[in-house]
Amino acid sequence: MRLLIFLVAMALAACAAPTRAAETDLARWEKQARAVTITRDDWGIPHVRGRTDADAVFGVVYAQAEDDFNRIETNYLTAIGRLAEAEGESALYSDLRARLYVDPAEMQRRYAASPSWLKALMEAWADGLNYYLHEHPQVKPRVITRFEPWMPLSFSEGSIGGDIEHISLDGLRAFYGGEGLPAPVDPGAALEPDGSNGIAIAPARSASGHALLWINPHTSFFFRAEAQVTSDEGLNAYGAMTWGQFFVYQGFNERLGWMHTSSNVDNIDEYLETVRRRDGGYVYRYGAHERPLAAREIALSYRTAGGMAQRRFTVFRSHHGPIVRAVDGGWVSVRLMDEPVKALMQSWLRTKARDLASFREVLALHTNSSNNTVYADADGNIGYFHANFVPRRNPRFDWSRPVDGSDPATEWQGVHGFDESPNTINPPGGWVFNTNNWPYTAAGLGTLDKADYPPYMDTGGENPRGIHALRVLEGAPPFTLDTLRDAAFDPWLPAFADLVPALVDAWDRAPPGDPLAARLAQPIALLRAWDHRWSASSVPTTLAVYWGEALWLALRTDPDSEDAAAYLALIAGSTPQQKLAALAAACDRLTADFGTWSVPWGDVNRFQRLTSDIVQRFDDSAPSIPVPFTSSRWGSLASFGYGDRAFRNTRKYYGTSGNSFVAAVEFGERVRAKAISAGGQSGDPASPHFNDQASRYASGALRDVYFHRDELAGHVEREYHPGE
Questions:
Q1: Of 67, 62, 277, 81, whose CA–CA distance to 188 is shortest?
Q2: How confident is the model at residue 588 (pLDDT cuts 50, 70, 90)?
């Protein structure tokens, strides 16, 4: 590919300092600001009231910017493909991936064609952020000095990047990048790891006779902010809002609640296109004919030590989607959901649904992509709704691999409707759940039959958290908000309940006088007596985690895999000698780091937040607090994930993902809710709300939510209009 690289001045318009607003803009912003009231409670959480929905949007994004403008800007730099302008060449292929789907000119056309009510919300969103920058000239954006109304269409669901993150950056680099370029860093990978728990309890299984909902996204920490957004047009939503989005993504209103979990549905397809050169361009075969392969140029700017540079890419697409890599002599295109207007409509309308019927109408837009939904409402309904966008395909093809793009039979045949998906409403057992496991146990064993659905409905199967959820839900006494919380923080680790006995058995079977077995006698004695439950004081938890990691590192074939099933299968399939050797390695590692292998889990597993940086830099010598729960890969429902520690140069484990925003909600005559967030609401280390929820987070001590206006009485820290 021809690449054009040239240096430009640092005064590139995209990076210019913000200018003072035009008088017409300022008058409009100030008028809208007067229609908005932001009430900060004693946890710093904004309760935003507007006369109209647009006013409320204006206010809530303004409040978000007050709390952490950098996260808003970074999310949009990633979504619109301009991250390299801030972070340099390492982000270039992340930008290219985004721009394959987010063409600013096309997004502007889609914005212009949007329904008037949606345009009003997008315009209010841009105005709220631009007014914030006007009122805070000391805030220096890294790139985006003026937000445009079309930008929310680039980020219209709740997860940054969304489905496009399935496209390999390495594949893009190999196809479009040539040789000798620095290895790309995937900024999206650290922004939202897969995971979440959702549980709904029917009135028959509730002590109060009201439906209950457990909201428990497992995202990277500080990925979403907590807020309440209300208007005189019927909006009253509370919950987790991804920084920079204007809708509550996981939360509730006064009538119903929704919790999204990531599905293992296969809803993205690769097509192997047969391509050849013709007349100076490219064509690809489709049926008995050849079609021109569309080509366009994408210019991407990126920061360098000496200023800004630019690289131009000629990218290609078939009618299936953009070309992303080459394999087996063909070019691979990717087809995925590409309906940003409908997706943004669904994201907003969901927050204003009033009952099961209206919620299902919103679901019928089928643009919440791969996300499952766990649902509960004030009428006593509960439900599990499987992945919202599942293409209907010809069953004779293997959709787990690239299919023949020249065969018209591989075209999608619409989208699976409600009755064609593994959904369940008001099951007889009185509860539903999802832990990113398969849908077939959503309401208990035997309630949904896998054989009734095509294989692409789920590609992941059961997982340890799913086994755990079944255990705490089946046969449990009637739930309250507090006992639902207790169930979601149940400390049993099902993976180790299966794996550790095999380790103990390997020791028992070791030959008499085996020096390795003799060395491991004390650790084995602790593991033999362990109840497979985490706690901050538990030494066996530490031994088990370090042992499992040692086996994984020794046996893994895919260094990037975090698949729980693969993880556990490798460990379970290890030989007795491998099991014992891994425990010895774990003890050696602990001794090297802490001076002894007998280390309580809470001394290792820590929560630390020192700066506002999106990628935290951890320090063993700085303050931190113990966290008793573990990574979800071991089956802990409460998740505290730390990822790869190698680059952090620390002895202790510092969490970066897992339980983030957590809420328990009861839908009676008045909604009652409790919640907690990792760290705190503000991204400013100088704010009292930077880390004021950390201890509660670590202990799982949910605080009361001030959902109703009278509940705010005595808990108001500040009330103001934007700009004051």
A1: 81
A2: very high
